[in-house]
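Standup notes
- DV: blocked on the single-chain target, sequence here:
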Amino acid sequence: MEIPAINLKAIVLVHWLLTVWGHMAWLPNSFAWGNISVLAIGVWAIAQRDSIDAVLMFLIGLSVTILTDIIHFGIYYPLNDFAAERGRDVFRFSAGMAILSLLLKPASCFFVYQMYRERGGDYNVNFGFPSVSRNREAYQSIDQQDESSSPANPFNQAEESKPARTY
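- DV (later): unblocked, structure below
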């Protein structure tokens, strides 16, 4: 099963757009500052293609903003509707985009983790998902001996054609 390649630029652009739209009506400035600062680290990861640290910090930042977004929604989601019809429409759009951003973040974290592994990151986490395994058919078992090697010649060296000495 091949994992599709998602460009880091697309992840940063989509989350930036959803963050801007989510901040339009009802979320506080801390929501925007938290998400935009993490996206700035994503721009750093785009600029330095070989940096393992940049993509790891972007992954950690995305993971932390999942929690902070949930906290922001829980605290600041209004209990009453806006009075004007236009205000309700803007609120619904803004809330929908903020929730969509939150729903996309776990998938973005998965793709950023794959990029981290491609760049040489060695933090190996197993979530129980099926993964691509290496073909082990080319390996020889240590329990079986090759027919070409014999016990008298354990290192499979060629027999020398020198005549044996007689005394």
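- Follow-up: Residues 2 and 28 are 40 Å apart (CA to CA).
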